[in-house]
């Protein structure tokens, strides 16, 4: 990322941003989808016919992508897209966030001044975009790689699990389906999310799941020492009531239970962020969404992704939890998962 003299070329930065925007437009309107299907190399006219779009706009899009090095130009004004389908779909979807963030800019501008609002809540189109990375196959991979090793710490098929901050319940339902002898609760303070989760539950017809609209810092009193596992997936860095949430997690976990918090694997320290791809992705998203959300309540320090792994770990330990090493990765290494126990 760093260029001559250890500095970014700002001219190239702006041009790359424009190229990413145009690439995202191509994905959103279906140009890339049709480009994948058509015999390559193809002409602008052939691609326009395939897409049902105006040839002149297709030509301009192609030339923009040639200039950025994404589309390859051939003889006889033909073009090809030298990437795999999975690369194009993953990064094409990623680039569609740019106009969504642009639409959020007035909200961000409003909270920046000292006399402005503290923060703001989630933006619907942003959540829909983020949901594109949480398809069933993605959730299964997450369960296999990041959740099953936690379950192995307390092997049982009839465990009781709390998904705190479950959102639309996609992960909750997949866990319940994967482990039919378990009892799974999903809670979220957002009524719309819980209503959507309950609608999906009716479709799935699962009997081992319960969804409740409950704040994470105000769990039912009867849940004391009730759960074998409590998971917080993309919760802590977005929350303003982190201390209240962790206090409640400690109360509802069984004495031999395990908590697991999942957040973007970004360091708390600026010196460790240089040339870090993960940080370059998540910190801008946090500026527009996670940080304002963590400041949207009546109190809270404002965490966001920039809070980072090391300070999040310290916060969990301050609430009387002991960190647990899972697998071969040392707990001092910045990572997505933090596992803890009373």
From TrEMBL:
<dbReference type="Pfam" id="PF21320">
    <property type="entry name" value="WHD_Rv2258c"/>
</dbReference>
<dbReference type="InterPro" id="IPR036388">
    <property type="entry name" value="WH-like_DNA-bd_sf"/>
</dbReference>
<dbReference type="InterPro" id="IPR036390">
    <property type="entry name" value="WH_DNA-bd_sf"/>
</dbReference>
<dbReference type="InterPro" id="IPR029063">
    <property type="entry name" value="SAM-dependent_MTases_sf"/>
</dbReference>
<dbReference type="Pfam" id="PF13847">
    <property type="entry name" value="Methyltransf_31"/>
</dbReference>
<dbReference type="InterPro" id="IPR025714">
    <property type="entry name" value="Methyltranfer_dom"/>
</dbReference>
<dbReference type="InterPro" id="IPR053173">
    <property type="entry name" value="SAM-binding_MTase"/>
</dbReference>
<feature type="domain" description="Methyltransferase">
    <location>
        <begin position="156"/>
        <end position="258"/>
    </location>
</feature>
<dbReference type="InterPro" id="IPR048711">
    <property type="entry name" value="WHD_Rv2258c"/>
</dbReference>
<dbReference type="GO" id="GO:0032259">
    <property type="term" value="P:methylation"/>
</dbReference>
<keyword id="KW-0489">Methyltransferase</keyword>
<feature type="domain" description="S-adenosylmethionine-dependent methyltransferase Rv2258c-like winged HTH">
    <location>
        <begin position="19"/>
        <end position="86"/>
    </location>
</feature>
<keyword id="KW-0830">Ubiquinone</keyword>
<dbReference type="GO" id="GO:0008168">
    <property type="term" value="F:methyltransferase activity"/>
</dbReference>
<protein>
    <submittedName>
        <fullName>3-demethylubiquinone-9 3-methyltransferase</fullName>
    </submittedName>
</protein>
<keyword id="KW-0808">Transferase</keyword>
């Amino acid at each position: 990322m760093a260029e001559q003299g250890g500095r970014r070329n700002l001219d190239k930065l702006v041009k790359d941003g424009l190229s990413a925007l145009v690439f995202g437009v191509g994905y959103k309107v279906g140009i890339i989808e049709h480009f994948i299907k058509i015999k390559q190399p193809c002409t602008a006219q052939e691609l326009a016919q395939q897409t049902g779009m105006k040839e002149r706009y297709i030509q301009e899009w192609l030339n923009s992508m040639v200039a950025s090095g994404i589309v390859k130009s051939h003889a006889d004004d033909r073009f090809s897209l030298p990437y795999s389908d999975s690369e194009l779909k993953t990064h094409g979807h990623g680039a569609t966030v740019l106009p969504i963030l642009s639409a959020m800019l007035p909200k961000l501008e409003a909270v920046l001044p000292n006399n402005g609002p503290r923060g703001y809540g989630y933006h619907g189109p942003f959540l829909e975009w983020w949901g594109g990375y949480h398809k069933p196959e993605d959730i299964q991979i997450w369960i296999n790689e990041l959740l099953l090793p936690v379950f192995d710490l307390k092997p049982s098929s009839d465990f009781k699990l709390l998904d705190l901050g479950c959102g639309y319940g996609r992960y909750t339902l997949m866990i319940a389906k994967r482990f039919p002898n378990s009892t799974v609760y999903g809670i979220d303070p957002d009524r719309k999310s819980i209503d959507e989760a309950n609608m999906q539950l009716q479709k799935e017809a699962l009997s081992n799941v319960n969804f409740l609209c409950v704040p994470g810092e105000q769990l039912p009193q009867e849940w004391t020492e009730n759960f074998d596992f409590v998971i917080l997936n993309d919760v802590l860095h977005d929350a303003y009531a982190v201390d209240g949430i962790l206090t409640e997690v400690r109360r509802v976990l069984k004495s031999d239970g395990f908590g697991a918090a999942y957040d973007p694997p970004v360091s708390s320290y600026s010196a460790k962020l240089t040339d870090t791809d993960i940080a370059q992705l998540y910190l801008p998203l946090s500026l527009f969404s996670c940080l304002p959300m963590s400041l949207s309540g009546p109190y809270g320090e404002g965490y966001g992704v920039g809070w980072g792994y090391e300070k999040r770990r310290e916060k969990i330990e301050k609430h009387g939890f002991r960190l647990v090493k899972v697998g071969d990765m040392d707990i001092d290494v910045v990572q997505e998962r933090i596992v803890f126990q009373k």
